[in-house]
Design goal:
Length: 416
């Protein structure tokens, strides 16, 4: 049963994300029952008002919150589970995870607390982003949203032909072994600005662990203070430098400070001025495949139809051939070995471990290695799911919309 969202709640969320100084700074909502939400409170203050016990942090409630930064550019999402919430009610969050994500859209930071109000406040305060009164006036310069960051990230993809040596940070050392003696004097201030800009990059692109290492590198006064970076991390830093250059170039042209938003749809770019289309996935895996329309191409990567062979004699055994089982499930787990953060790696490991325990057939798809080999699995995945966030899970050809959380829920209720 779909999640019921009242209009006052959807309006409040839109207000928080509008970056209009006349709108709400934050809102809180909870459950009427397992599939019905309700708006609890709204306000104009900062996160200290949001996390007040009468708003978000109620011991007996399961609640969500959304707030924006004083300049209205960034948003943070909160999941609160009160210490007095029972086991059945706790399952609501996991069950509705996918629909809640659709409701809130992209957010810059996420917080989750299991009844510890002080710890939650300390985590928010440590960021130094969501406190203080609202700033009135427009924010200057282009502030990319998540889809725009993904589009920029694709433009500086070394797999697609970008030369990392063109970026100043990669020239410093492409192997991640940085030395202050090799850093040109004119780049020292440039690097401090680089770190400040990295603080605004979405966590899906730059995880907290790598951001901390960038800060240590920025603050290092001798080589012994510099953390060790992997080669992949050095590439990520260089790609970020390329993104910032593109943002600056867009700001300097005086053009409207927005990229055209990526439409996941069924199209993807393969070569310059060339577009391929994927046939939409049939939502019912048991139904017959529809005939393609006259203007619809099948993907080049589709497996060819095998040549007919002479009929083999029937085997002596009456046992059915397991290869002919139409109900057999194969899970496809999409991940990447380039720039994978700790959370993604942990989720992929847990998914594979559970599938192994249940002896369920699966295939892990490394999008980075596939791209190096000239494959198109990344584009296929995006066209089918409409998302670039990893890991992604498919059951046969059907996208598991709730991702890792839905997978864990299916395992918990025994429906893998």
């Amino acid at each position: 049963m779909p999640l019921v969202v009242p209009k006052d709640l959807s309006d409040a969320i839109a207000s928080v994300k509008s970056a209009d100084h006349n709108s709400y700074r934050w809102c809180v909502w909870g459950y009427v029952k397992s599939n019905t939400l309700k708006l609890v409170a709204t306000g104009q203050g900062d996160y200290t008002d949001l996390t007040d016990a009468k708003n978000l942090c109620q011991d007996s409630e399961l609640q969500y919150g959304l707030t924006n930064s004083p300049d209205g550019v960034k948003t943070a999402f909160f999941e609160w589970t009160g210490s007095g919430v029972g086991g059945m009610k706790r399952s609501y969050m996991l069950r509705n995870h996918g629909e809640i994500d659709k409701l809130i859209g992209y957010v810059h930071h996420r917080f989750s607390s299991d009844g510890d109000q002080d710890k939650l406040k300390a985590e928010i305060h440590a960021l130094g982003i969501y406190e203080g009164g609202a700033l009135i006036g427009e924010v200057k310069g282009w502030q990319p949203d998540m889809q725009e960051y993904l589009a920029l990230w694709a433009e500086v993809d070394p797999v697609k032909g970008w030369d990392p040596s063109t970026q100043w940070i990669y020239k410093w050392n492409p192997y991640g072994i940085f030395s202050l003696g090799n850093l040109p004097e004119e780049d020292k201030e440039k690097f401090k600005q680089f770190y400040k800009r990295c603080e605004g990059v979405p966590e899906e692109i730059l995880d907290k662990g790598l951001l901390r290492k960038i800060k240590q590198l920025c603050e290092a006064e001798k080589d012994e203070d510099i953390p060790k970076f992997t080669e992949d991390e050095a590439v990520i830093l260089s790609r970020l430098a390329g993104i910032f250059e593109k943002i600056d170039a867009r700001d300097d042209t005086g053009q409207p400070n927005k990229l055209k938003k990526h439409d996941p749809g069924t199209e993807f770019q393969t070569k310059k001025n060339e577009t391929k289309k994927f046939k939409p996935i049939d939502p019912d895996p048991e139904s017959d495949d529809p005939e393609p329309s006259s203007d619809e191409e099948l993907p080049d990567e589709e497996d060819p139809v095998p040549d007919p062979v002479d009929e083999l004699p029937a085997p002596d055994s009456d046992d059915p051939d397991p290869l002919e089982d139409p109900d057999e499930k194969t899970y496809y787990v999409y991940s990447t070995s380039l720039g994978q953060n700790a959370q993604t790696a942990s989720q992929v490991y847990q998914v594979k471990m559970i599938l192994d325990l249940h002896k369920i057939k699966y295939e892990e798809v490394d999008l980075y290695l596939d791209g190096l080999a000239g494959g198109t699995r990344r584009s296929e995945m995006t066209a089918k799911s409409g998302s670039r966030v990893l890991p992604q899970i498919f059951i046969n050809d059907k996208y598991l919309e709730g991702g890792f959380d839905e997978f864990m829920w299916l395992n918990e209720i025994g429906e893998l």
